[in-house]
Amino acid sequence: MTSNAPAPALDPARLLQSQIAVVTGAAQGIGEAIARRFAQHGAHVVLVDLNRDALELLALDLASGPGSASVVCADVSSPEDHETVHAHCRDDLGGVHVLVNNAGINRDAYLPKMSLADFDQVISVSLRGAWLGIRTLSPLMRAGSGGSIVNMSSLAGKIGNPGQTNYSAAKAGLIGLTKAAAKELGGFGIRVNAVQPGLIRTAMTERMKPEVWQAKEAEVPLGRAGTPDEVAAAVLFLASPMGGYISGAVLEVSGGRGI
Ligand code: NAP
Q1: DSSP labels for 102-120?
Q2: pTM
Q3: What CATH number should be reported for the domain holding residue 55?
Q4: Which residues form the pocket of ligand 1, taking CB atoms under 6 Å from any ligand atom?
């Protein structure tokens, strides 16, 4: 039977109040911006990255706001490290509501020069890392009252970038993973979505040659690159009850580039 009961009121200033959210790649860039947004909205954020010092500084900073944070220094390509995150959520925090599979790397080269190691490493962090996160944490979400997962894809996974066959494949793979997991986990109240950022200014893109940056920026209908916080706002929307009936979706955050 369809219920016409009004949805519970949302506090727009505290969209993740008392929620426990795991964010990978949280030490800098887009992941850090997501962690900050989530904490502003009242979440306890489990900060996951390789860089412990940066995570601890961020956790200290977040402790002075409406949310809170804890740190797990972990490599997302390692199944054992995901078990450590799981144990922290289950034993120390009592569950998990949100997972953002944000950690990703690039190892760019044209095909003749791209090594097998470059290909495997990018797939291993971006795609296998997200799959491991979903496989490890979704049972804990199921044991609670459901949850929300957001995978960080990229416009590269939609349009493909020369010199990024590894990265584009990983980011396209995340779309298949998102849709399959959305179908598999929807019955347990778990939503799974993906975000596809375009050109965002972070350490990852600051390595680009200036002429490459300018050429990409010229393709953006809004006329500029995006900020990490603009991606974080989209992730917050999908993760929070604002996106409560959205699952299996791919949200482009690209200023219109690649449409
Ligand atoms: P970033 O500044 O390089 O940040 C990525 C973070 O992930 C870094 O702190 C990095 O740590 C961490 N990380 C790397 N490998 C890891 C691993 N195995 N386990 C745990 N953490 C790991 O990159 P970003 O630009 O914020 O990118 C964040 C995500 O957005 C990535 O998935 C990226 O592909 C995606 N994205 C970015 C853009 C863009 O224009 N910037 C566009 C589309 C999609 P280390 O620094 O120690 O390696």
Answers
A1: ---------GGG--HHHHH
A2: 0.97
A3: 3.40.50.720
A4: 24-25, 27-31, 49-51, 75-77, 102-105, 125-126, 152, 154, 197, 199-200, 202-205
